[in-house]
Amino acid sequence: MSTPVSRHPANHVPEPVTPIAELMSAFPAPWALCGGWAIDAWLGRQTRDHGDVDFCAWDQRALFEHLAGWQLVAHHPNVAGDSSELWDGRPVDLPAHIHGRRDKGEALPESLVLTAEQGFRLDIQLNERSGDHWVLNGEPRVAIPLRQAVRPSGWGLPTVVPEVTLFYKAMDLRRRDKLDFAALRPQLTDEQRDWLREALSLVGHPWLPQLA
C-alpha cells in the first residue's frame, strides 16, 4: 500500500532524535517515529523546529517496563488534562499520550503543563490495535494493517508512513500541522494520496480538495 515518499541514501539521524533511537533500539514491541520528525524523516531534511520527539507505541506494559528510570505522566480521557501524576503502569484508556523525561530525582514541576524546557522532550502516543490492524479512528472506523503503516525511513528508523502521519495531522489543524501538510503533500505517491483522500472522506475534512 505504502512506499517511502522519496528514496534517500542513509541519512544521519538528527541529534534530538538520536537518544530516542538508541533508547528504543532494544524495545521488544512495535514502535514508530511520528509527528513532525516523521515528516522530516520522509523528506530527508528538517523543515521546522520541534519542541519534542514523538513516537507511537501499542504495548503499554512493554513500554512501561522498557522506560524504567523515566518519569512518565499519562494523559488520557479519564485523567484531567492538567494532571501531573506519575504513570504507575496501569492500563490507560485510549487515545492517550505520555510525557516523559529521565528520572534524575527531580520533583515534578509545579506547573501542570509539562514542557520540553522542563526536560519532557519525549511525547509518546499510545494507540489502539485490533489484531494486526492499527485503529486510527474508532467511529467512523479507519484502520490499516500495522505492517503497512510503519516502514523504515531514510534514517533507518521505524516511521509512520506519510499518509498515516498526515491523517493524524489533519485532526488538529494547528499551524504546524498545516505547514507539515504543505511540505509533504507534493511528495505523496498516487497510492498514498488515494489512501489519505479515502480516509479523510470518512471523517470529512477541508484538505480533501487539495488531494483531488
Description:
With 212 residues, the protein is of the alpha+beta class. The protein has seven helices and ten strands. The strands form three sheets. The protein has a five-stranded mixed sheet with strand order 1-2-5-4-3. Strands 6-7-8 form a three-stranded antiparallel sheet. Strand 7 (133-137) and strand 8 (142-145) form a beta hairpin. Helix 2 (35-43) packs parallel to helix 6 (175-184) and helix 5 (162-169) packs parallel to helix 7 (190-203). The protein is globular, with a radius of gyration of 17 Å.
Radius of gyration: 17 Å
Main sheet properties: 5 strands, mixed
Percent strand: 15-25%
The amount of helix comes to: 25-40%
Assembly state: single chain
Counting helices, strands and paired strands, the structural category is alpha+beta
Write out the strand line-up for the largest beta sheet, numbering strands in chain order.
1-2-5-4-3
What's the tally of helices? 7
Calculate the mean pLDDT score and round it.
88
Give a nutshell description of this structure.
The chain has 212 residues and is α+β, with helices and mostly antiparallel strands.
List keywords for this structure.
alpha+beta; five-stranded mixed β-sheet; three-stranded antiparallel β-sheet; 28% helix; 21% strand; globular; disordered N terminus
